Amino acid sequence: MKHTDVKVILNDPSLVGRELTVCGWVRTARDSKNMAFLALNDGTTLGHLQIVIDKNAGVALPPEAAKLGAALKVIGTVAVNPNNGSAEIEAKEITVLGPSPEDYPLQKKFQKLETLREMPHIRVRTNTFNAVFRVRSIMAAAIHRYFQERGYVYVNTPLITASDCEGAGEMFKVTTIGYSDKYKNADEYYADDFFGKKAGLSVSGQLEGEGMAMAMGKIYTFGPSFRAEKSNTLRHVAEFWHVEPEIAFAELPDLIEIAEDMIKYIVRDYMEKCPEELKFFEERFEKGLTEKLLNVVNNDFAVVDYTDAIELLKKADVEFEYPVDWGCDLQSEHERYITEQIYKKPVFLINYPKAIKSFYMKQNPDGKTVAATDLLVPGVGEIIGGSEREADYGKLVAAMKEKGMTMDEYRDYLDLRKFGSCPHAGFGLGFERIIMYCTGMSNIRDVIFYPRTVGNIR
Ligand code: 4AD
What we know:
With 458 residues, this protein is α+β, with helices and mostly antiparallel strands. 32% of the residues lie in helices and 24% in strands.
């Protein structure tokens, strides 16, 4: 169906006077005896295109066309609205492509985000979600561009796997056998299952990504990760999109440099490409958002040792719900205090106690900490988790044994330390978390199309 995008019509003054076809859904409708005005949106922009229907001039308005949510095709001439100077269409012919009865759920101008969450397929027709999903698309493209321009190879790592990357036991099981009392024990059950062994949905592409980095030098993945965490928080979903670069011949400081550079690149790109959306988020969701993001692109991030952060938290004049001591896993309240109250900008926390971090992280010479980093940002907390990897076979095996892991599941991974092992490092960026940070949306459920959380799927 040949038609012109609303975005093009609203932004190209040379179209004034031209007759063209436009398609879209009715956002508002005013109908009187002589004239009718429809606001049409086709999703290409947050702006609506006004359709003017002059009934005295003999233009027919089908009754179903003036209904919210109806899909229309309009043929008309581009004119300039004398009141606000923006482009509008003087309609000649209106066709209803799809009517929208009275039970169309978006009858009210503003609806609560909670209400909209109950209808993910319809909420995308609101300006809020139009803006969120355009930003997602622009930022995904920026991430690919960032890595592609720098010679990284895009890799698709398996989604079904037999090894648990984070070793945290948060994997969804993949099985073709339903409930059954046929088996005497788990081993028998898995032996009879599709893969002949226990399998699950990957929590991270890192382990396989490391294998690729050991061949291609610099790689990145960008795909879904799955976590069966039962935490019902504003920043966890069971299915999230994960960006995971892995770099051979890199150590922790190199990794920090790359992560900061990438974040600045994608934020700058978003600010350049989405001024309309940014303004919308600033007005509706986070006052000071633009200023915050300008600070991100124009200033250095802080780098703070975990041990120093603990001291700062202990000195803080705040009653934390969870007590702080060296060795503790930082809670969201601690992370947010560090980045929001102390540094007021993104902070790389480095050198965490090895007991609270994953088996694969490079053990520091102090014997207590690992060369890991989390990037914490105001408002959201952790958006990146990464580390230099333990490249020494013996040390890696020892760490795995300490954590009670089954070596057999990690044979490929261990091989990487046997054949041409080298210093290497990588990180994982939670795509939804950076979208939250850049849009000011405070609930992760509002930056992903169909959020999957504990007890909630459709
Ligand atoms: O810190 P995480 O668990 O690190 C890893 O998975 C490493 N294997 C990454 C690597 O080094 N290649 O997760 C990385 C990031 C977190 O910082 C967070 O942004 C995001 O993934 N993330 C989640 N996002 C939404 N919902 C969840 N349940 C998430 N779990 C992690």
